[in-house]
Amino acid sequence: MAKRVHVVAAVIRGRDQRVLIAKRPDHVHMGGLWEFPGGKVEQGEAPLEALKRELKEEVGLAVVSAQPLIQITHDYPDKQVYLDVWEVIEFTGVARGVEGQQIEWVHAADLAAYEFPAANQPIVTSTLLPSTCLITGHANAADVYLSAIEAALDRGHRLFILRPSCPDIDLVTVISALKNMAHFDAAQWQWHIDWGTAAPANFITLVSEHKNFGVHFSARKLEHNLEPFQDSLLSASCHDQSELAAAQQQGMDFVLLSPVSATKHYSNAELLGWVGFSALVKRINIPVFALGGVTLDDVHNARLAGGQGVACVRAWWPS
Ligand SMILES: Nc1nc2c([nH]c(=O)n2[C@@H]2O[C@H](COP(=O)(O)OP(=O)(O)OP(=O)(O)O)[C@@H](O)[C@H]2O)c(=O)[nH]1
Q1: Which superfamily does CATH assign the domain made up of 132-312 to?
Q2: Catalytic activity annotated for this protein (predicted)?
Q3: pTM of this prediction?
Q4: What is the fold, at CATH topology level, of the domain defined by 5-120?
Q5: Which atom of ligand 1 has the smallest separation from the CA of 117?
């Protein structure tokens, strides 16, 4: 069997947050499609060195610093690739198509309009997602619940999993209150409503009426027919390899994987640690947030372990 090719690729953001993409020449593998700049890792070369070399050779940029973003194992009919995608944090130079290829700086939200090789869909999702995912906790009153979210939006957080769990608030009220908040649009498509025990009976209809809200599933819910949600952005909570495989198979856009470390909630569960987290993340091709006993300061640890970032409740929710 042919050897899997180790490829490094980069998500490079310009000052205005647009992302650099390049068009593959017609005559090469996946020719004519757009790509994140990069190329094959040479024998004996460290991935970051390969990334620096490829970006210099292809788009004339010098990488100062970069961190892992997502890794994808994909089998094309004629080639097996391991795409090792990095997020460039700092670079110098002005991008140009050194090999004569077309390049473009594109807003992350517009990447979906470009045709990429089949392996790239999770990279596009990963580019859209921030590195923190905030899950709402319990509140005794609606105004406490909503003002905690509003304060987090003001602090720059953009991805939320909503578990409206206070007695005097229903989902319709939450949705309309969120829509009136400053920065609501910045987090559009990044609001995920938990289809949990507290969800109302008309949950499916409700979600279909609010297209800019995604749905979050418990692992158990992944056994259901998720057809009604196919137009929504989807996420799930997973704890082991079989749940992750089900999440990928059901088309989840991202997942939360827990428990990484001990919490009050998870004190008896088997903890993954960063090593266990990393081993599981390697087996799937969708962005994974580390959950359970992690704080907002653990983003770098999560990235080094192959994750998208961290998901938290207690680390941000007012107690
Ligand atoms: N650079 C890059 N390659 C990708 C992406 N997505 C994807 O499937 N690939 C695949 O990964 C492989 C990368 O090989 P390459 O041809 O770009 O590598 P290279 O620059 O070292 O080329 P060469 O040594 O053949 O000249 C190709 O099979 C390509 O189809 C992507 O976003 N960026």
Answers
A1: Aldolase class I (3.20.20.70)
A2: 8-oxo-GTP + H2O = 8-oxo-GMP + diphosphate + H(+); 8-oxo-dGTP + H2O = 8-oxo-dGMP + diphosphate + H(+)
A3: 0.93
A4: Nucleoside Triphosphate Pyrophosphohydrolase (3.90.79)
A5: 8
